UniProtKB/TrEMBL annotation:
Domain Pyrroline-5-carboxylate reductase catalytic N-terminal residues, every copy: 21-116
Entry keywords, A to Z: Amino-acid biosynthesis, Cytoplasm, NADP, Oxidoreductase, Proline biosynthesis
GO cellular component: a single term: cytoplasm
Signal peptide per UniProt: none
Pathway: Amino-acid biosynthesis; L-proline biosynthesis; L-proline from L-glutamate 5-semialdehyde: step 1/1
Binding, NADP(+): 25-30
Family stated for the protein in its record: Belongs to the pyrroline-5-carboxylate reductase family.
A Gene Ontology molecular function term of the record: pyrroline-5-carboxylate reductase activity
Catalyzed chemical reaction(s): L-proline + NAD(+) = (S)-1-pyrroline-5-carboxylate + NADH + 2 H(+); L-proline + NADP(+) = (S)-1-pyrroline-5-carboxylate + NADPH + 2 H(+)
Enzyme class: oxidoreductase
EC nos: 1.5.1.2
Name of the protein in its database record: Pyrroline-5-carboxylate reductase
Amino acid sequence: MAAPPVQPVPTPAAANGDSFRVGFIGAGNLAESIARGVAASGVLPASAIRTAPHRRAERGTAFASIGAQLFDSNAQVADDSDVVVISVKPQIVKQVLLELKPLLTEEKLLVSIAAGIKMKDLQDWSGQQRIIRVMPNTPSAVGQAASVMCLGEKATQKDENRVRSLFGAIGKVWTAEEKYFDAVTGLSGSGPAYIFLAIEALADGGVAAGLPRDLALGLASQTVLGAATMVNETGKHPGQLKDQVTSPAGTTITGIRELEKGAFRGTLINAVVAAANRCKELS
C-alpha cells in the first residue's frame, strides 16, 4: 500500500539562506499572488523575481509594482532564472514548453502550476527531468493557499526546499504522489467554491431568520474562518469540535438534524468525488 501524503512542513522565512532567481512564464493573477507572497515574506528579494509582458498591460504593471524585473520575452525570463514557473493556461503549456525547450538546461528547475497537465507530458514537451508539479488554490490571493506538490525523477532535496519556500509564502504546502492530484483538485482546487456556497447559504439563513444582510454575511464568513482556524490550531478532529458545541436538545443539534435530513455531508463528499472524476476526464 502506498504511503499517504505527508503533513505540511513549516516553511522558514527563507530557504536556508538559499539565493536564487525565479521566473514566471505567464503573469496571471495566481503568478502575481505567489510573487507578492514571496517578496513580502522575504523568501526572495523582489529583484530576484522576473516575468515577461502579458497581453494585458496591467499584468506587467502589477508585477512591476512588486519590484519584479520585466523582460521582453519568455525566452529571456527562462534564460535568466534558476527556477522557471510555468503559470500559463493549460491549453498553451505544450506550445510554451516546446518553444523554451532549448533553454531548459539541467541547471534549471521547472515548476508547473498548470492544472491537469501530467508530469509525463511536462517531461516530454520540455525535455527536462528536473520538474516539480504544484497544485495551489485560489486562497493564494490572501496568503491562505493549500498547495500540494509532487517531485519529478531528478528533482533534488534542494529543489523541494526551494519550491516549499516559494509556496509556503502563500499558505501551507503538502507533498504527495501525482496519483493523488485528481483528488487534490476535487478537494482543495474546487473546494473554495463549495465553501463560498456554504457562506452564502448561511448568510441567507441569517436573513431568513431576521438579520440584516450585511450582518448575516459578516457573521457567516467569520464563523467559517473561525471554525477552520480551530481545526488547524487545536489539532482536534472536526467531529470532536462539533460535539463540544452540541448540547443535548439544544439549538445546534436541532440545526445538525436538519443538515442530516438534507444529506449535507454526503452531498459534500459526492461533490469532491465528482470534481475529482471530472479532472481525471479532462486530463
